[in-house]
UniProtKB/TrEMBL annotation:
<dbReference type="InterPro" id="IPR023299">
    <property type="entry name" value="ATPase_P-typ_cyto_dom_N"/>
</dbReference>
<keyword id="KW-0406">Ion transport</keyword>
<dbReference type="GO" id="GO:0005388">
    <property type="term" value="F:P-type calcium transporter activity"/>
</dbReference>
<feature type="transmembrane region" description="Helical">
    <location>
        <begin position="945"/>
        <end position="962"/>
    </location>
</feature>
<feature type="compositionally biased region" description="Basic and acidic residues">
    <location>
        <begin position="339"/>
        <end position="348"/>
    </location>
</feature>
<comment type="function">
    <text>Catalyzes the hydrolysis of ATP coupled with the transport of calcium.</text>
</comment>
<dbReference type="GO" id="GO:0005524">
    <property type="term" value="F:ATP binding"/>
</dbReference>
<keyword id="KW-0112">Calmodulin-binding</keyword>
<feature type="compositionally biased region" description="Polar residues">
    <location>
        <begin position="1170"/>
        <end position="1180"/>
    </location>
</feature>
<feature type="region of interest" description="Disordered">
    <location>
        <begin position="1134"/>
        <end position="1218"/>
    </location>
</feature>
<dbReference type="InterPro" id="IPR004014">
    <property type="entry name" value="ATPase_P-typ_cation-transptr_N"/>
</dbReference>
<keyword id="KW-1133">Transmembrane helix</keyword>
<feature type="transmembrane region" description="Helical">
    <location>
        <begin position="908"/>
        <end position="925"/>
    </location>
</feature>
<keyword id="KW-0597">Phosphoprotein</keyword>
<dbReference type="Pfam" id="PF13246">
    <property type="entry name" value="Cation_ATPase"/>
</dbReference>
<feature type="region of interest" description="Disordered">
    <location>
        <begin position="293"/>
        <end position="348"/>
    </location>
</feature>
<keyword id="KW-0106">Calcium</keyword>
Length: 1218
């Protein structure tokens, strides 16, 4: 065989000799083509070209055991030869592109057109006719120079449009920059385990090079392509590449090819990295997607397009060459690019609660604004026509036509101004600023936000379903009790109390059967606790071996990982892990005190359950059973694939109780959640006694409360009907009282989350947050309104499915997220309260003023200053308020709570009444009060008046003081509370005041202002200050008395959606309420909602949920392969008839090598396993019961379970189970 391999290998070398192989005996092209093959074809190619994987390692100058040497020059050379493990990010939009996008705004375009027409017409003079002949309004300009300045208004409008566009573009640019920073921060978090210089180390994903030997384990997202060197029961989910949901088993003889972007769902192993970055399978697809995007941009190059398509088809054919494992990239195969683009724009996940409400509100305000502006224009033109041609009785003179057109343009500009004021284009800006600010600050509170909207949704959370291990507890596990040789030790026993043979086997079993990636390291600081690396349950067992004064490393050195004969790795069904060793020794181990094996009867089992397991579990300990079995040569070699037979007739060595102490800060954090109206539920894989004990310590269960504490089996029994289908009504009876769900599987977790979210029994509807760390928590994390993944203990798959990553795995960080979320919501409401008061007043003033005086008291440029510039500042000021503890003293708003509460409506209308009274008083009586000339009925191009300048100045002063009022939205009296903690707010208010002084004193004609005296200024400031005093009056009026007030800004209810539209949307994951609003004939409006598009587009560009390609994340937000692939689509059939048994459940801290067995064994087995307790709510027993059901043959024959006295066993199996 060896000579065969050698000969083939030589032939392969000659075959490939024509490639440019550089420093290595392998070219990039060669490796790329190798990774395009699957299964048998791949194996054949490896055998032909390299002999075996060892030959490939030799060619790449690496060792399958020690990996690369790790020298900097070697790594650099490999990066140069084979590329880096990064996918170059899509170029960010340039500032000019963002300016161009901001210019697309409909309202701005209308203003630009009107301003240009106004500019053009302002230079026109009627040649012969006197201006007076064109009507009174046209004449009256004494000074020719004054008439020459008619162009200023048009120019000023254009200038302010330019300012608005630049401010918008700058905001978008800085946000894009911020999000790219966030993206790179997420990527820096991602590390992978490789072997370099014989040492197992973790490096950043981007540092991986071709030739590296990487360790893969359950839950990993593969960062590069590789060939398997050694694997234990390795199963991969390749659905992100192939669309096939079945897991693919990877072995050296069958299919050794592992591809980037796929997920390890089971097992562990070592792989040789063969392709990285753009040369990996994911990278190739990404390059094609990028190429396709470029083609869309440049449609002239059709020829090139055809070539690309051919290339793509080639790739598809190649990938489909092996039966079911073809790379079916649907977006790539589509002939109709346009249709694909349409699909790409459909969001996969429901828009956030806030976004839905805001879109709906903006649409409603936009409609009202359009109506008002249209009405204004019609009334103005009608009044002008009636006045000129009927009252003055003037004939239509052809030479006067441009003058009349000029008037119409002026009226049109006034109409557009009303519209500009009506549309709250500061709203999306406030949202993005508030979210971006919160996200930045949340990082300091150990919350890494992946999806922006999750931040605000968290503020509405009414329920949190939390894991136990690592989140509520410290995830620092230690063995504190043990049951050995018929004795229950309350503390870890001294080694001399344990029979030598038992001790040897115990330490060997622990050393070999714990993953080799788990180990105990020396403490970082002197006198500190030893560091636990890897799976914490395994670390507890390794620590137990050290406590018994034995070194597990000596055993691992004797039996390196390559020498393990067979490994049955941990998975959610098996709930245990076993390792088979080839041995020459003979063993007799036991449960009896003298070291002899004895039959384990059902009586013994009951005794262990009652006297050992239950007492341990009720103290909050996790119980784990360690067992083994000999395979004597006389019995012949068993079928190693038949796991059920292998894992029967085991002999129990020991049952240990592992303590995981509650985090000291958790009880207080849970108390704060409960006070804030959030229900905390514990969903765990541990048994019910352990879960109940921990829940009581945390404060989830309060003495005297009416709560439910059940396990997964009981939960399934209660929620399913006779056909085994889940019924919502049944879930509704359970969830309101449920506090602890023990022994739950990931499916149970998903069912519970979906049940709570879909429930309508309680108002408001529930908003659910979920924590998870394991691969199988993916569906629940994706389904929940907010998914929290653990940054330390979490698998890559869980992180990809989550919205927020807890970088310290701590429950108290979730409470911080709740505070920030509520703060975002309140910030938006504060801004809305301020913005709508400005809008209501400005629209009414412009409308009534225009109708009565045929001119708007607030000119277009002044309106633009008030509306666009000041709104931008106000959104910045009000959106950056820091959160306070008082946010946690109120109940959550819930899903359907309106954005504008009745109290806010009272404030908006109350302040509008004050402001309108002042403005109209000044408008119609201001000239007498201040003894100045009236500014009403001024002719076209008349110079600015003091009268209208005072109106404008007072209006701005009132907004400034009202901004301080807007800081409180729940009717608080002290509006100055904490104002100096927010320096941004103070500086913006002061800055706006300074700019206003400059505009009034030096603005002149462009701003239609004249200089005011000190007296006039003081009156303006005093009238503005009146807003604060009036605010106290408004607060005094009880909201409950004002029955006529209505709230506004509700989310869309499902029943409001027409049936045919609901049917259309069935293929989407959720109903996108905001999108629905936009569909119903309002698309036109939504485009024009000042800058809303631009703002939301920037956010959406970075929202992973808006993925254009099924199974792939948006290319622009990805610059490393590791981050390029999104979570596989989890298919969960809710109506599945089979009832999952406890055996199918999964241990809650889903770590790669957790050994959790949840099966009962037959009464005469020698394994110390225990029967299910008759009490359904008390499944402490499940914790200990190991492994798989035994074959009936063995269990039926008591003698067969007894080990021979001294078997010469060539194969000895060691077992650890939970």
């Amino acid at each position: 065989m060896a000579s065969n391999s050698f000969r083939e290998s030589k032939r392969g070398r000659h075959a490939q000799a024509n490639h440019d192989v550089g420093d290595f005996n392998c070219s990039l092209k060669e490796l790329r083509s190798l990774m395009e093959l699957r299964g048998p074809e791949g194996i054949t190619r490896i055998q032909e070209c390299y002999g075996d994987v060892q030959g490939l390692c030799t060619r790449l100058k690496t060792s399958p055991i020690d990996g690369l040497g790790g020298h900097a020059d070697d790594i650099a050379r490999r990066k140069e030869e084979f590329g880096q493990n990064v996918i170059p990010p899509k170029k960010p939009k340039t500032f000019l592109q963002l300016v161009w996008e901001a210019l697309q705004d409909v309202t701005l375009i209308i203003l630009e057109v009107a301003a240009i027409i106004s500019l053009g017409l302002s230079f026109y003079r009627p040649p012969d006719a006197e201006r007076e002949n064109c009507g009174k309004a046209a004449g009256g300009v004494e000074d020719e120079g004054e008439a020459d300045t008619g162009w200023i208004e048009g120019a000023a409008i254009l200038l302010s449009v330019v300012c608005v566009v630049l401010v918008t573009a700058f905001n978008d640019w800085s946000k894009e920059k911020q999000f790219r920073g966030l993206q790179s921060r997420i990527e820096q978090e991602q590390k992978f385990t490789v072997v370099r210089g014989g040492q197992v180390i973790q490096i950043h994903v981007a540092e991986i090079v071709v030739g590296d030997v990487a360790q893969v384990k359950y839950g990993d997202l593969l960062p590069a392509d590789g060939v398997l060197i050694q694997g234990n029961d390795l199963k991969i989910d390749e659905s992100s590449l192939t669309g096939e949901s079945d897991h693919v088993k990877k072995t050296l003889d069958n299919d050794p090819m592992l591809l980037s972007g796929t997920h390890v769902m089971e097992g562990s192993g070592k792989i040789l990295i063969t392709a990285v970055g753009v040369n990996s399978q994911t990278g190739i697809i990404y390059t094609l997607l990028g190429a396709e995007e470029d083609e869309d941009d440049d449609e002239d190059e059709k020829k090139e397009k055809k070539e690309k398509k051919d290339k793509k088809d080639k790739l598809d054919k190649k990938s489909k060459s092996k039966g079911g494992a073809g790379v079916e990239m649907q977006p790539l195969n589509s002939d109709d690019g346009g249709e694909e683009k349409k699909k790409a724009n459909l969001p996969k996940k429901e828009k956030s609660v806030l976004q839905g409400k805001l879109t709906k509100l903006a649409v409603q305000i936009g409609k009202a604004g359009l109506f008002m502006s249209g009405l204004t224009v019609i009334i103005l033109i009608t009044l002008f026509m009636v006045d000129t041609f009927w009252i003055q009785g003037l004939p239509w003179v052809a030479d006067c036509t441009p003058i009349y057109i000029q008037f119409c343009v002026k009226f049109f500009i006034i109409g557009v101004t009303v519209l500009v004021v009506a549309v709250p284009e500061g709203l999306p800006l406030a949202v993005t600023i508030s979210l971006a600010y919160s996200v930045k600050k949340m990082m300091k509170d150990n919350n890494l936000v992946r999806h922006l909207d999750a931040c605000e949704t968290m503020g509405n959370a009414t329920a949190i379903c939390s894991d136990k291990t690592g989140t509520l507890t410290m995830n620092r596990m230690t063995v504190v009790q043990a049951y050995l040789g018929d004795r229950h030790y309350r503390v870890v026993p001294e080694p001399d109390l344990i029979p030598g043979k038992v001790l040897d086997l115990l330490v060997m079993g622990i050393g070999v059967n714990c993953a080799y990636t788990s180990k105990i390291m020396s403490p970082e600081k002197e006198g500190g606790l030893p560091r636990q690396v890897g799976n914490k349950t395994e670390c507890a067992l390794l620590g137990f071996a050290l406590d018994l004064r034995r070194d597990y490393m000596t055993i691992r050195n004797e039996v390196p990982e390559e020498k393990l004969f067979k490994v049955y790795t941990f998975n959610s069904v098996r709930k245990s892990m076993s390792t088979v060793l080839k041995n020459a020794g003979t063993f007799c181990f036991s449960l009896s005190s003298n070291g002899e094996a004895k039959v384990f009867k059902s009586r013994d089992r009951d005794h262990v359950v009652k006297k050992v397991i239950e007492p341990m579990a009720s103290e909050g300990l996790r119980t784990i059973c360690l067992a083994y079995r000999d395979f004597p040569p006389a019995d012949g070699e068993p079928d190693w694939e038949n796991e059920t037979d292998i894992l029967t007739g085991l002999t129990c060595l020991c049952v240990v109780g592992i303590e995981d102490p509650v985090r000291p800060e958790v009880p207080d954090a849970i108390k704060r959640c409960q006070r804030a109206g959030i229900t905390v539920r514990m969903v765990t894989g541990d048994n019910i006694n352990t879960a109940r004990a921990i829940a009581s310590k945390c404060g989830i269960l309060q003495p005297g409360d009416d709560f439910l504490c059940i396990d997964g089996k009981e939960f399934n029994r209660r929620i399913r009907n006779e056909l085994g289908e889940i019924e919502q009504e049944r879930i509704d009876k359970i969830w309101p009282k449920l506090r602890v769900l023990a022994r739950s599987s990931p499916t149970d977790k998903h069912t519970l989350v979906k049940g709570i979210m879909d429930s309508t029994v309680q108002e408001p509807r529930q908003v659910v947050a979920v924590t998870g760390d394991g691969t199988n928590d993916g569906p629940a994390l994706k389904k929940a309104d907010v998914g929290f993944a653990m940054g330390i203990a979490g698998t890559d798959v869980a992180k990809e499915a989550s919205d927020i990553i807890l970088t310290d795995d701590n429950f108290s960080s979730i409470v911080k997220a709740v505070m920030w979320g509520r703060n975002v919501y309140d910030s938006i409401s504060k801004f809305l309260q301020f913005q709508l008061t400005v809008n209501v007043v400005a629209v009414i003033v412009a409308f009534t003023g225009a109708c009565i005086t045929q001119d708007s008291p607030l000119k277009a440029v002044q309106m633009l200053w008030v509306n666009l510039i000041m709104d931008t500042f106000a959104s910045l000021a009000l959106a950056t308020e820091p959160p306070t503890e008082s946010l946690l003293l109120r109940k959550p708003y819930g899903r359907n709570k309106p954005l504008i509460s009745r109290t806010m409506m009272k404030n908006i209308l109350g302040h509008a009444v004050y402001q309108l009274t002042i403005i109209f008083t000044l408008l119609f009586a201001g000239e007498q009060m201040f003894d100045i000339d009236s500014g009403r009925y001024a002719p076209l191009h008349a110079p600015p008046s003091e009268h209208y300048t005072i109106v404008f100045n007072t209006f701005v002063m009132m907004q400034l003081f009202n901004e301080i009022n807007a800081r409180k939205i729940h009717g608080e009296r002290n509006v100055f509370d904490g104002i100096f903690k927010n320096m941004i707010f103070c500086s913006i208010v002061f800055g706006t005041f300074v700019i206003q002084i400059v505009i009034v004193q030096f603005g002149g004609k462009p701003f239609s202002c004249v200089c005011l005296t000190i007296d006039q200024w003081l009156w303006c400031v005093f009238l503005g200050f009146g807003c604060l005093l009036w605010g106290q009056v408004v607060t005094t009026v009880p909201t409950s008395r004002l029955k006529f007030l209505k709230s506004a800004g509700h989310g869309t209810q499902q029943e409001e959606i027409p049936e045919e539209e609901l049917e259309e949307m069935e293929d989407l994951d959720e109903i996108d309420h905001a999108e629905m609003e936009m569909r119903r004939g309002q698309v036109l409006w939504c485009r024009g909602l000042g800058r809303i598009q631009t703002q939301i587009r920037v956010v959406n560009a970075f929202r992973d949920t808006m993925s254009p390609y099924e199974g792939l994340e948006t290319p622009e937000s990805r610059n490393s392969i590791h981050n390029f692939m999104t979570t596989p689509e989890f298919r969960i059939e809710d109506s599945e008839p089979q009832i999952p048994l406890i055996d199918d459940t999964e241990g809650e801290d889903d770590a790669p090598t957790k050994r959790n067995a949840a099966q009962t064994l037959p009464p005469h087995s020698k394994l110390a396993t225990l029967p299910s307790s008759p009490n359904q709510n008390n499944n402490a027993v499940d914790m200990v019961i190991p492994l798989h059901k035994e074959s009936p043959k063995i269990s039926g024959n008591p003698e067969s379970a007894v080990l021979p006295a001294c078997p010469g066993s060539p194969l000895n199996s060691l077992e650890t189970s939970l």
